[in-house]
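Q: I have 355 residues here and want to know how they pack in 3D. Can you give me a structure?
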Amino acid sequence: MQHRALIVGISGVIGSALAERLLEDGWQVYGISRGRTPVAEGSISLIADLASEPSVRSALQGLQVDRVFFAAWARQANEQENIRVNGTMVRNVLHTLGGTLAHGHAALVTGLKHYLGPFDAYGTGAVPPTPFREEQGRQPVDNFYYAQEDELFAAAKQFDFSWSVHRPHTIIGYAIGNAMNMGVTLAVYATLCKHTGRPFVFPGSAMQWHGLTDMTDARLLARHLEWAATRPGGQNEDFNVVNGDVFRWQWMWSQLADYFGIEAAPFPDSPQPLEHHMQDAATQWKAIAARHSLREADVDKLASWWHTDADLGRPMEVMTNMSKSRKAGFLDYQDTRDAFIDLFELLKAQRIIPA
């Protein structure tokens, strides 16, 4: 039987990788988004405002799918608004599909803020010891991830479908105009350093520079989502999802510098947030884009300085345990350095950064 999937947020870094994976495996793929950026060739694009129930109902009218993958969120001014808007988005989609999903599956992608707390209270509470394990549960703070989970659990019970929750660490993958995209952000930063003579300074904290960490390749996450949606071991469970290796940024930073043919600057005495230090990046990038005939001259559509600052500026160690997935049958692995280089090569091929 050919699976029919709806990817919510199909144009993002997760949704794009997932669409390509499912299409390769012969799925019929529908994708819902605001329609601002292209979707994977072969998928069917649906346009809606996910926070609006009438808009979602209009877009999904008559749609018959047996798998739903939720990989979208809308950043709001504070966590209470994040909870209201992002919980509503999940509810609108699942309640619109309703009984058509009976005996099917819905997967929700959240992240490690499940353990760290939301941006409003990032790492300020009693963060559980690393590596994070699914059994550590929720933290005693408001968190829109929990609201999304609760909507998923309630709909699964009401409409009789299975569910899975996937918690990646920082994601490496290809997407343009994505609000949380460290890989593309670092590629843009390194390119700016190479072409302007700016030192390639690690912008984050001493803990991130010296401590162990891990990351998640969007392609591995796509395989994990497909696995959970089609294998009994992946259903009605929550999972951490990372590449399977660990590294220290003091090593990885020099690897990235070597790839771009620049020198990694000495570690600074204090954090150097990109959002503060890249005020002139827009003008510089326009000049680079014109010189090299790049596809996107607006640096703000490529780089998410604030999100990269948040990840690299953490004052605590952040890494996860994948034992639950391994025991359930998911054994995939991805080298993180290779994930970065694969992305950089794709960015060059797509004329996003200079070749």
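Q: Anything worth noting?
A: The longest strand covers residues 162-168. The first helix runs from residue 13 to 24.
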